Amino acid sequence: MNSRPIPDATVGRLPIYLRALFDVLGDRGATISSETLARLSGVNAAQLRKDLSYLGTYGTRGVGYDVQYLMVQISRELGLTQDWPVAIIGFGNLGHALLNYKGFAERGFHVVAVFDTLKSKIGEKAGNLLVKHIDELTDVAGSQEIAIAIIATPAPAAQDVADRLVEARITSILNFAPCIINVPPEVSVRKVDLSMELQILSFYEQRTKESPPVNRAIKA
Amino acid sequence: MNSRPIPDATVGRLPIYLRALFDVLGDRGATISSETLARLSGVNAAQLRKDLSYLGTYGTRGVGYDVQYLMVQISRELGLTQDWPVAIIGFGNLGHALLNYKGFAERGFHVVAVFDTLKSKIGEKAGNLLVKHIDELTDVAGSQEIAIAIIATPAPAAQDVADRLVEARITSILNFAPCIINVPPEVSVRKVDLSMELQILSFYEQRTKESPPVNRAIKA
Hints:
- Chain A is of the alpha/beta class.
- Chain A has ten helices and ten strands.
- Chain A is globular, with a radius of gyration of 21 Å.
- At the A-B interface, α1, α5, α6, β9 and β10 of A face α1, α5, α6, β9 and β10 of B.
């Protein structure tokens, strides 16, 4: 592991690079230039090279980066070469969707417990699991060594759930509820805003409408 | 509207700045320093100032940016000051969750149509809407002026759906299916990977475990 600390902004971009590498794996050669990887990741090439230098990776001039090797390096840096037991709190539509989401297990995130508060949901089948009452959180978090919890409740319940997660000594929280939750500084929280990518689309859509290309003009 | 073209990477960061501004709105003053906004957004302050300069916004030395004004500016730039009619394709758990997601309407994204292929789902209530068969896509896309479609199907169905969206002259696609879809160059595609934020959490979680702080040590 590299001794130079990796800036938060770089950490935030590593999953983007990793996804781009996964996407090109197979249909391109064994190497990728910093320019191509940067373009696929939506950053400039200088930024990419600087980010990867924190991992001790510099590529080969005129050749680029070895795709497989770079994937392993980024995965290791992100902690994806180990399995992470994950809990989902809230078994509504979003909780169901997240439980069935193929992309988690591919990256080492395994849902090992699902919690809710609704009596009607407790004991319901959730894949190979049974939905547990959130009162069991501390016990299960300890026995299953859960490090990461996903809040998939409505916004009004999110802070109470966060407080219970902190009590249960869970140190990483992914919050899908559209609200801010407060936790002690030693707990990491990331918030998912599902509308972020839509906003990027609307930027380009607006531009298209301002200067319509031929096919749009024909349509109108 | 500014005449200097905004780089893609800057466009990608504008929703992050906007979210950070929404988060501070209310509990902070009317202005925000570039350092604070940069920290909340996970970028460095020089990057933030450069990004905002593309919007013709420079803040006031020693004061910072006016929060409300900056929100309006970014929103306008992203096309969020108008309403966007959106279609959801695939009414499984994810489709349900997206339909109920509060964060879309807040940003001007209104789901005006929901499609599926399963006979049992056609005609089912989806909020105020009824689920339609995907064969009706072209008609509905025209009459409802749908510009943006969200693919919420399983991966094997995603390419076929994308082909139908292109046929229906929809020019922006948000793909939640964990696979790559191919579309003509005039169509914009953004892919959502729900595991990206988990990867950032696992980075920090791994670091915590390598050098356990006091409270983790006590736990162990």
